[in-house]
Write a structure and sequence with these properties.
Elements (H helix, E strand, L loop, with lengths): L11 H10 L11 H12 L4 H20 L12 H9 L7 H17 L8 H12 L15 H10 L5 H15 L4 H4 L28 E5 L10 E5 L8 H11 L10 E4 L2 E4 L2 H14 L9
Antiparallel strand pairs: 1-2, 3-4
Helix pairs in contact: 3-5, 4-6, 5-6, 8-10, 8-11
Length: 298
Amino acid sequence: MEAPPPLPPLNLNLLRILLTLIPHTPATPSLSSSSLARVNHALDHAWADSTLSKYRNTVTQFLSFCDSENIPTGFRMSASEHLLCAFAASRVGLLAVDTVRNHLAALKAWHIYNNKPWMGSTRLRYVLNGVANLASSSSKKPPHPPISRSMLVLLANHLELSNPLDSCCFVAACLAMWAQARLGEILSPWENSFKPTFVVCRSHLLPPFNANGSRKCHLPFTKVAKSRGEDVVICRQHGPSDPIAAINSHLSINPMPPNLPLFSYLSTRGWRCLTRKKLLSRCNAVWSLAGIPSISGH
């Protein structure tokens, strides 16, 4: 085999010309304080409040893990792939792999928010494969049982529908089922306040558009469409679980102004927002009497 030809000599003049054509870019470009403020403002609204709450819990768990392993503070962010693999592997046999993936997504968001590089790569993916293969049966949650028409009928028969709270709970349950809406898309997380850009308000419910009383309702924020929102159509159903009759009854008992959430009720302390926790508490209290397991909602 012949030896390869020698490399041509390095043309230093050409190299100098090329270097002058490529401007030096610092690792982090210098931005005005107003631009940085806008970036931070956008990042502050990049995740839903409920998601941030879960992410904060995960970051706390990660920092506790680092404490137990005596990881110096400076090595926790950016976390090396070696450290991320160790954290993921610490969940083997305890958590389902989807939960571990959610924990890593939280750590990745934490790094992104702080403008730090994310080191997770191929090795971490293989560790997650191992977590999945070694998961115990107890770490896997069974599917949520479905809500059925008969369960809504139980609510109609056992809730006090002339009561403002129970009337509000019943119509929320009916709309969530017949309109296939997530509870987080129609209810406020708080009893005493709400975000109009995230919660269905009275003004979002349009008047009936046909002889059956069918209505269109705008969901201002959904899991899929985000801030574009989506429109759902609520149609009349036969029997006690009819959402149209439930809406009409609710609006007569709780005649909230247009700017309040549709799922509000009048209490002795004034208007209150129906929360997911309160709705599920009232529903499960009824369903448990019929031997139905507790529902966690969606």
